[in-house]
Amino acid sequence: MTTTDTFIVSKAGYKYVAILVSAIVIFSFLNFSLLRLLSLVLLGAVVYIYRNPELEIPYMQKGAFLSPVDGKVVAINSLDNTYEIVIESSLFDISILRAPFFSSLHSVNLRRGMRLSTDTRKSTLLNEKVELVFEDRYNNVVHVEHMLDNSIDDLSVYVKSGEELSQGRRYGVMTKGRTVLSIPLSSRLSVQVDSHVKSGETLLGYLS
User: Fold this and answer.
1) Of the chain's two ends, which shows fewer C-beta atoms within 10 Å, N or C?
2) Which pTM was predicted?
3) pLDDT in tens, 11-24
4) Residue 58 placed within a domain
């Protein structure tokens, strides 16, 4: 997915839309009213889950980094050399993943796996996840991990290592999961636990 992908539904939802539209046509032809209605309801749900709004990315000062996901901040941890911001995204949040700042993508490590609840111990070892490392021109490095949590679909990632990303660029889709951002301890944070954040819109803080 690139910044020119402005269709109402993200690419990850195309196959489900195609299946349901086909089902509606078939059930209409066969005069199966109840099944046609059910397919229409499911189509509406799919369009909502995979909605792909076009954003006006706000102008930000030097070092500003935005949330890569929609969701709720459930924890902010101070570790040895980093802050760790944990964001949980529900099925009803916008599923689009966006670059948090102007950066070079150092690495993308996608591990296919299960979709267990992240509350279970095995989820860390078994769940599907992607780890991305972003670096800006001032050598600030931010690690972002997206892990599925009882999700209805796989993770979709549309970027590769070495790509240059503008702030707010779409780089993937996660329908439900947990995101962990690891940022330098010298950064200044602008969010608190229980804050609701928007992908490509909410300011999380400033890199040094």
Assistant:
1) C
2) 0.91
3) 999 999 999 999 99
4) no
